Amino acid sequence: MSASVIVSLSHLTSMKLQRVNTYIIPHLFVLFIILLASTSTRAQVEELEDEREFDYIGASEKGPRHWGEMKKEWSSCKNGHLQSPIDLSCARVKIIPRCRQPDIYYTATNATIINRGHDIAVYWKDDAGSVYLNGTEYFLKQCHWHSPSEHSMNGRRYDLEMHMVHVSPDNKIFVVGALYKFGHRPDRFLSQLEKDIKHLVDNEVERAIGETNPSGLQTRGNAYYRYVGSLTTPPCTEGVIWNIDRKIRTVSEEQVRLLREAVHDHAERNARPMQRRYNRDILYFRSKSRAKPEYY
Ligand SMILES: [Zn+2]
Q1: What is the model's pTM?
Q2: 224: number of CA atoms within 13 Å, CB side?
Q3: What stretches pass through the bilayer (predicted)?
Q4: Per-domain boundaries in the chain
Q5: Of 90, 200, 246, 250, which one has the fewest beta carbons inside 10 Å?
Q6: Residue 163 annotated in active site
């Protein structure tokens, strides 16, 4: 093989390589960006299992006023215009009469109770059921409690708020919320968990609690508020669909005290301050039938 042939071959090869490079490298780059975006989306969808990085103390450097400055990924807490919680005022809602309730199917499956530092949460690792709304299925991941309530109704905050967090396969979030006031009748679901919550006080961070049926938490009211907001803890991810039961439930003072005493921070509250509503719509749904949602 002559030198000129070798040169032209190597030239050809390098041309081919260049062509391959100009083809592959941008694609690899795009793939990298997609992977990066999907990783960060996944990270932002999940609430933190260890909440020690922030707190609820007004004067603290880690308090709600500073959440948005503490990490780049938490900037929505400060700059977002779809933040939660907000006041659900009757005077400002759009009433949607005779609507159909979302399809809700829950089933008992193994769960774990976790002390996240500022709250107690129950996680279902397997499929515990879902909510089907407007063509999207949102799977139940976990529930947890805030005291006092985060959302208010007509300016009034209640004594406790429960959140059931559902996530769709493409990482959209749907949260069912319920507010409670102190009453003689304790909450049934919390009553079932009392022994396990007591175990978390200074003993464990996490405890398997066996088969647990989420339908014990489900709203049975026939009216609820819906609006688009955010997670109420960092990273304050926006686009969360909130569905909050209009009916106020009851919980005993002892149950709320137990939830507060079990967490590591022993703080009096784990409720984020009220956020600006901007010009968001709050829809008020009244279901057309009093039929209970289906469970299995
Ligand atoms: Zn919450």
Answers
A1: 0.81
A2: 24
A3: 20-38
A4: 66-286
A5: 90
A6: no
